[in-house]
Amino acid sequence: MNKIKRFPSWSVEAKAGLILGFTALTLAGSMTLINNKNNQGTKNSDDPVIVNPSDQPIEVSNNTEIVVNEKIETLVRPYLINATIARHYYDMNDDVETRASSIVLVPGKNNTYMKSVGVDYVYSGKTFSVVAATSGIVSERINDATYGNLICISHESGLKTIYSSLSSFNVTKGQQVKQGDVIGTSGESLYTVELGNSLHFEVIKDNTYVNPEKAYTSIVTKI
Question: Are 77 and 133 in contact (CB under 8 A)?
Answer without folding.
Answer: yes
